[in-house]
């Protein structure tokens, strides 16, 4: 338990981000909640205690928003120990149907966002020997049908994580990522409501079900903790065994 450490969590209004913010609060952190919808962030802040949290609304693809968020964090708490880059969007479609605007939206939030937040946070993380945990995806480890742009954005997060880990390990900053599969979140709501799609996922996930936000949050908390002090540049699948398969179908 740490009663003086500070974590920034982006996309904290729901799903994995909200679960992660709650987990860090339980572990004694002050938590900075970022997202685009103030009402959702405020609800999470109320749940974990407004005295333990700071809400900074804004889009992580904006450099001004990100710099303000980090500045507000330091002004309020005087330090920064953990950054969780969780904010993300999904727009499906094959290349003949996906617009340039849809490509930009995903690359800006999913890849540029973690770049901007990490860049702004690193001077402070160097001081505390802190860590970054990015939320990539199994879609950043291999391709999906009809999701090339999302896959590209998450692939960028995966390799950015590895390369930044090399650059900043000498300064004591660890940088890792989690790679969830289908997780029961607001972003996956349409998928979770489709029994046929859920069944198809269950057939590919060794544990036979979608993940829960709290299950991803627990791994994020581990990667940010002293228990993972010799772990950096690692992408941890939190996917119920999906990526353990070589892709061939289950027989019998």
Task: Provide an overview of this structure.
One of its GO terms (molecular function) is glucose 1-dehydrogenase [NAD(P)+] activity. It is an enzyme of class 1 (oxidoreductase). This is Glucose 1-dehydrogenase 1. Belongs to the short-chain dehydrogenases/reductases (SDR) family. The chain is an alpha/beta fold and 252 residues long. The chain contains 8 helices and 7 strands; from the N terminus they run E-H-E-H-E-H-E-H-E-H-E-H-H-H-E. It has a single domain, classed as Rossmann fold (3-Layer(aba) Sandwich). It has a 7-stranded parallel beta sheet with strand order 3-2-1-4-5-6-7, sandwiched between helices. Helix 1 crosses helix 8 and helix 4 packs parallel to helix 5. The longest helix is centred in the middle third of the chain and has 29 residues. The radius of gyration is 18 Å and the shape is globular. The relative contact order is 0.14. The mean pLDDT is 94.
Write the SSE topology.
Layout: E1 6-9, H1 15-26, E2 30-35, H2 38-48, E3 53-57, H3 63-77, E4 82-85, H4 100-128, E5 131-135, H5 148-168, E6 174-180, H6 189-192, H7 195-204, H8 213-224, E7 235-238
Parallel strand pairs: 1-2, 1-4, 2-3, 4-5, 5-6, 6-7
Helix pairs in contact: 1-2, 1-8, 3-4, 4-5
């Amino acid at each position: 338990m740490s009663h003086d450490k500070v974590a920034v969590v982006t996309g904290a209004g729901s799903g994995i981000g909200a679960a992660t913010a709650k987990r860090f609060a339980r572990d004694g952190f002050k938590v900075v909640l970022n997202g685009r919808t103030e009402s959702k962030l405020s609800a999470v802040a109320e749940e974990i205690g407004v005295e333990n949290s700071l809400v900074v609304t804004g889009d992580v693809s904006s450099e001004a928003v990100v710099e303000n968020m980090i500045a507000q964090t330091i002004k309020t708490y005087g330090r920064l120990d953990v950054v969780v880059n969780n904010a993300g969007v999904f727009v499906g479609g094959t290349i003949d149907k996906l617009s340039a605007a849809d490509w930009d939206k995903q690359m800006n939030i999913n890849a540029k966002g973690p770049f901007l937040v990490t860049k702004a946070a690193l001077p402070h993380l160097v001081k505390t020997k802190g860590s970054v945990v990015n939320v990539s995806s199994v879609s950043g480890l291999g391709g999906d049908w009809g999701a090339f742009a999302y896959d590209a954005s998450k692939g960028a997060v995966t390799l950015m994580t590895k390369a930044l880990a090399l650059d900043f390990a000498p300064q004591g900053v660890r940088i890792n990522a989690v790679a969830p599969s289908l997780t029961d979140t607001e972003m996956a709501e349409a998928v979770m409501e489709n029994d046929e799609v859920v069944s198809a996922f269950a057939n590919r996930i060794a544990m036979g079900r979608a993940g829960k936000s709290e299950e991803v949050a627990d791994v994020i908390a581990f990667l940010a903790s002293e228990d993972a002090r010799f772990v950096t540049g690692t992408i941890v699948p939190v996917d119920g065994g999906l990526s353990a398969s070589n892709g061939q179908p289950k027989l019998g």
